Amino acid sequence: MRIVNSETRYGLVSKVLHWVIAFAVIGLICLGWYMVDLTYFDKWYNQSLAIHKALGLMVLGLVVVLFFWKIISPSPNLVASIPLVQRFAARGMHHLLMLVMTVISISGYLISTAAGKPV
Fold this sequence. Notes:
- The chain is an all-alpha fold and 119 residues long.
- The chain is built from 3 helices and no strands.
């Protein structure tokens, strides 16, 4: 398996980044739903918050790495048989997901630090 992307396939680095970020985001969502029901006096309150913050910062760091990786090794071309509108929508959705992951991670960091709490 190639490390970098080719014109038709994603390379190892892109696949690993994709799945690590995907599992981390799924973990953040599940942990967030779990944390909603915790009270301040629950023994998992502080631990789950620390894990959530760490995962959020990890996602931010990995999205930054992914952004630079896409400059070094661009994504494969989409199949020519896919209509232009769908190719445009696919690329647009990909960029939107990266933007959302970045904005949510940064906003979580800002909310935590604005409250005077460590990250």
